[in-house]
Amino acid sequence: MSRHLVHCIATIALACITGSAAAHTQSGDDRVNFRQGAYRIMGWHMGLLGDVARGEKPFDAAAVKRWTRHLQWAERLTAQTYTPDTRKAAESRMKSEAWDSFADFKSKGKDLKMAIDMLAQKAADKDTNAIRSAIGKVGEACKSCHDKYRQDIPH
Ligand code: HEC
User: What pTM, to 2 d.p., does this model score?
Assistant: First the structure.
């Protein structure tokens, strides 16, 4: 390849990168959209884990481990989205009380993280009863935050 051609390609690539960065500056609305997607991922996996805990799905240690890893991952994603510019986002169902008591809100996030990490540990031990109770604890951590800081979801 000639040096001139390499230079041309590099210039076009750079133009693409800078161009797309300008077009996709992330707004508070974008972050809320992303946050809700990450919470839906958590909801999906809690549905599966809940079925296991209630005995409605056969116990499969490998699946429980995998779903728990997905929960860990999605929880980390939501944690990045709580920037002040999301407070005024029209689509957000986060109550303003959460912003006014942000330290308490964050501590509920930490409780969730700890409950999921505990579930990951129990899933590795493969103790079915301990796994069931750890799934219940994760569910309680979700509910404890929603009851206080999330507006009801219209059905
Ligand atoms: C620290 C508080 C907190 C914890 C813990 C928490 N959530 Fe939420 N959740 C929220 C808030 C706030 C919203 C609303 C987000 C928004 O609209 O900006 C939300 C929204 C949701 C939604 C609706 C998403 C949508 O489509 O709008 C689902 C589903 C959800 N959470 C599931 C879960 C599950 C499952 C867990 C536990 C594994 C969990 N959440 C733990 C605070 C929390």
Answer: 0.87
